[in-house]
Specification:
The protein is of the alpha/beta class. The chain has 6 helices and 6 strands. It is globular, with a radius of gyration of 15 Å. The structure holds guanosine-5'-diphosphate (GDP) and magnesium ion. The site of magnesium ion has 4 residues, from helix 1.
């Protein structure tokens, strides 16, 4: 018998280059805040938010990296037991997109085989500075069997949808 107040608990881990907006996405979703100019670290390992999808209570444990985004410094323990990965790049930063294969190698090496991965192109409010075309990213995601979504943590565009879509997918696969 369970006394828990949720039907599912999922661990979601954000990865991707420093500066792409991972912390801002988590902050926007869990606290409804966008802190412009805020530093990278939020001082805790993870944030919790419970969402309800068609009467099903889903508790999301969301892990953010505290400035350890350099490859190989994020260890196996960070990926261990992750149900989902949010692989984030910045649509205004070609370099953050070009690093994605490195991140995919890490996922292959450290994450479990069942992990659900969603590729997120963040900062779509900066459309005039876009360096990565949407179609190119969509094709890349599809070739790697990843979901794809574009977001703005700043304008709260698609942020709720990101986590809800992920929760739906995780329920489906559970
Ligand atoms: P992290 O290193 O991946 O955690 O990135 P941060 O969340 O710390 O964000 C890095 C920088 O990008 C900060 O200056 C944020 O204010 C900015 N930023 C994050 N998300 C967005 C966004 O959606 N739009 C814009 N314009 N800036 C963003
Ligand atoms: Mg950060």
């Amino acid at each position: 018998m369970s006394m828990e107040d949720y039907d599912y608990l999922f661990k979601i881990v954000l990865i991707g280059n420093a500066g792409v907006g991972k912390t801002c996405l988590v902050r926007r979703f869990t606290q409804g805040l966008f802190p412009p100019g805020q530093g990278a670290t939020i001082g805790v390992d993870f944030m919790i938010k419970t969402v309800e999808i068609k009467g099903v209570k889903v508790k999301l444990q969301i892990w953010d990296t505290a400035g350890q985004e350099r490859f190989r410094s994020i260890t196996q323990s960070y990926y261990r037991s992750a149900n989902a990965l949010i692989l984030t790049y910045d649509i205004t930063c070609e370099d953050s997109f070009r690093c994605l294969p490195e991140w995919l190698r890490e996922i292959e090496q450290y994450a479990n085989n069942q992990v659900v991965t969603i590729l997120v192109g963040n900062k779509i409010d900066l459309a005039d500075k876009r360096e990565v075309h949407r179609q190119r990213a969509e094709e890349f995601a599809e070739a790697q069997s990843m979901l794809y979504l574009e977001t703005s943590a700043k304008e709260s565009d698609n942020v709720e949808k990101l986590f809800l879509d992920l929760a739906c997918e995780l329920i489906r696969e559970a």
